[in-house]
Amino acid sequence: MENKWYTISVYSENQVGMLNRISGIFLKRHINIESLNVSPSEIPQVSKFTIVVNTTQKWVENIVGQIEKQVEVIKVFSHQDEEIIYQESALFKISSNLLFDERQIQNIIKESNAQIVTVSREFFVISKTGRRHEIDELHESLTPFGIRQFVRSGRIAVSKEAMPISTILNTINQKK
Amino acid sequence: MPFYDELYKFQDRLRHVLVRHEQGAAHAAQGYARATGKVGVAVATSGPGATNLVTGIADAQIDSTPLVCITGQVGRHLLGSDAFQETDIIGISTPITKWNYQITKAAEIPYILAKAFYIARSGRPGPVLVDITKNAQFELFDFEYTPCDHVRSYLPEPQIDMECIHQAASLINEAKKPMIVYGQGVVLGNAEQELKTFIEKTTIPAAWTILGKSALPTAHRHNVGMVGMHGNYAPNVLTNECDVLIAIGMRFDDRVTGDLNTYAKQAKIIHFDIDKAEINKNVKVDVGVLGNCKQTLAALLPLVKENNHSQWQSSFDQLYEVEFKEVIDKEMNPTGPGISMAEVIEQINVATQSQAIVVTDVGQHQMIACRYAQETLPKSTITSGGLGTMGFALPSAIGAKMGAPEREVITVIGDGGFQMNIQELGTIYQTQAAVKIVVLNNEHLGMVRQWQELFFDSRYASTVMTNPDFVTIAKGYYIPGKRVDQRADLKAAIEEMVAAKTPYFLEIKVENEENVFPMIPSGSSVSDIRLS
Q1: Which of B190, B243, B437, B491 is the most buried (most CB within 10 A)?
Q2: What ipTM score was computed for the predicted complex, to two decimals?
Q3: Cβ-Cβ contacts under 8 Å for B65 (sequence gap 6 or more)
Q4: B351-384 residue pLDDT tens
């Protein structure tokens, strides 16, 4: 079975230790997490983990099952890229003199739809939001000029299909 | 300290058993849980006390045993300061618990403990750890008991889908050569009666995984024995000939399936399980039936037809005859002077009328005990299945005896495993729990030695044991005992042990280099099982 990119979305209670419990499931299977983002979700007190992995369908199914059975996890989804709308963000810190000495940098920024967030005497910061490959391309273009600091966020994603978390919570509670 | 000080005041209402090592506490709690179906409780102090519980917790997790482990922790303000006896037991226990929680305020105690017991026993059971910081043990608060029978993110028993039950029933009704493999899920779901009725209505031959053993009496007409690496010949071979395999409350462990690429490929597979994550985890199934098997089997029963699979059953009987001739007869009636492990188990069967709880450790004696112990009552096999924890049996037998004092509890242990929690003889002495201990001494780590003989040209690297005088050690704990090394003395010694009202210790010197067969070599197909 071939490796593919999967985005795993986990809805869980917002509790100390949930990140450890969920990431341990990847650790036990020796699967590297490519990116991870934790944030509030559309439901109060419910956290959403967005986890990107490069692995096989079989392992994704196994992982989804293992995460979903954790007591404080409400529901887990896994998607391939075409099934979701997703974004990542990156910040590039670059020496300010380059902005004036290397005119090309301005073109790169403009063409890549990046934004200059701040400019100081010493450095300026470019922010870019988009797909992973767009950020990679910008990184590649800026590297020859010298990037003083670089950071990229975890992926955030919403699915094209519905994620009916409220319905699931209601079902569990009605059964009660 | 504050926790124990409170326990002192509740001695008449809450029985605390002082063990000699925290690992013993965890295993004893497991033995109690397995013998009773109730939640076992183990308490340990912070730091090393907590880490000593870890093996028992991991064992309970893989064998779905309901436990609540309560650990002490340094005060809230000291967390993360590397204080004396501070350890991150929440971090350590996360991958081996069903749930865990750190209490830092006394007011959380009633609800969290109620939640801990609810989670441990509901759905697929498992171990829960509650870590309580020292300040929370001292604080005062207005006590109000808050029961827990519901957690909003947790659905312990999935909704039963009748469509799946109908699909399962039609596969079962059309099958010419169906076979059942039942596991501990039947025991955990108290579905022994439903299983028996299903088997008797359909006359389908039924085999068991090691933890499922006591779900059906061993002598039942349709009980065809154990599957897996050292299971019986017929059910292993015929796994690869059946047309429908009905798995009930089992998880297709690698010791059961052997090589997955050649496991029951010809069969349609139906899998009854309470845990959705088990369906299609190891073996792709045709029908997955989610739910507690007490309910799913009950729903299935009216839909399956009465049947007569006597011809198919006879192929199991024929292969049993092969195994009897090649293995069983030789082990039960050995011609050499050395005592075989099987004849010891057979004497225990006779002396207890097959009504005892047999608690085993891990290794050769475990396989022999599970293969030969005859059982008539539910919850009669207690053993470490998934984790294979040597040292499990002695403390576990203490818990089993305390949970089921009316039953005879016999623990069968190898000379290696006995020395892994031997200190619990002290607990037996102090509590006078009338556990009957049988150490089968072959002066080796026998199972490893067997693998070395078969697969490593008999290079016995570090498997030969120079053992102490076990009877004297037992005597040191004032436990009466005896050593048997002659076949002629075996029967009387076991009868004396069973007749004893007190704890009793029996060391039996068995053949040093006996091998356990049948055997599916690691990575081989179930149908390539070897008889010698």
Answers
A1: B437
A2: 0.94
A3: B30, B33, B34, B40, B59, B125, B126, B127
A4: 999 999 999 999 999 999 999 999 999 999 999 9
CATH number of the domain to which A133 belongs: 3.30.70.1150
Q: Where are the alpha helices (DSSP H) in B189-288?
A: 192-202, 233-239, 254-257
Cβ within 8 Å, pair A66-B277: yes
Tokens 């600091």 -> residue: A149
Round to whole Å and give the CA distance between B306 and B132.
55
Q: Which residues pair with A6 in a beta bridge?
A: A53
Q: What is the DSSP letter of A106?
A: H
CATH number of the B162-316 domain:
3.40.50.1220
What does chain A come to in residues?
Answer: 176
Mutate to test the interface with A, among B62, B73, B94 (most CBs of A within 10 A): B94
Question: For residue A44, is the peptide bond before it cis, meaning its omega torsion is within 30 degrees of 0?
Answer: no
Can you name the CATH fold of B2-138? Rossmann fold (3.40.50)
Domain chopping of chain B, boundaries? 2-138, 162-316, 335-509
Give pLDDT, residue B27: 98
Residue A32 tokens read as 């590297």
Distance CA B273, CA B390 (A): 28
Q: Say which residue the tokens 């294979």 belong to.
A: B388
Q: Which residues of B touch A (CB under 8 A)?
A: 90-91, 94-95, 98-100, 102, 119, 124, 149-155, 159, 275-277, 280-281
CA distance B359 to B392: 9
DSSP H helix total and E strand total for chain B = 23, 16
- Residue B304 has, within 13 A of its CA and on its CB side, a CA count of 27
* Structural fold of domain B335-509: Rossmann fold (3.40.50)
Same-domain status, A11 and A59: yes
- Using alpha carbons only, what angle is made at residue B499 by residues B495 and B503, rounded to the nearest 5 degrees? 110
Q: Which of B193, B202, B249, B256 is nearest to B226 (CA)?
A: B256
Across the interface, whether the CB atoms of B95 and A69 are under 8 A apart is answered no
Q: Do B162-316 and B335-509 have matching folds? A: yes
Closest CA to B485 of B524, B441, B520, B443: B441
Q: Quote the number of domains for chain A.
A: 2
Quick one: pLDDT at residue A166?
Answer: 84
Residue A71 lies in a domain: yes
Q: Which CATH number goes with the domain that contains A56?
A: 3.30.70.260
The two tokens of residue B81 are: 């300061």
pLDDT confidence band for A175 (50 / 70 / 90) = low
Of B129, B139, B113, the closest CA to residue B49 belongs to B129
Q: Which residue of B has its CA nearest to A15?
A: B101
Q: What does each C-alpha distance from A88 to A36, A37, A52, B97 come to in angstroms?
A: 11, 10, 11, 34
Residue A25: domain span: 4-79
User: Most B CBs within 10 Å: which of A10, A41, A69, A171, as the mutation test of the B interface?
Assistant: A69
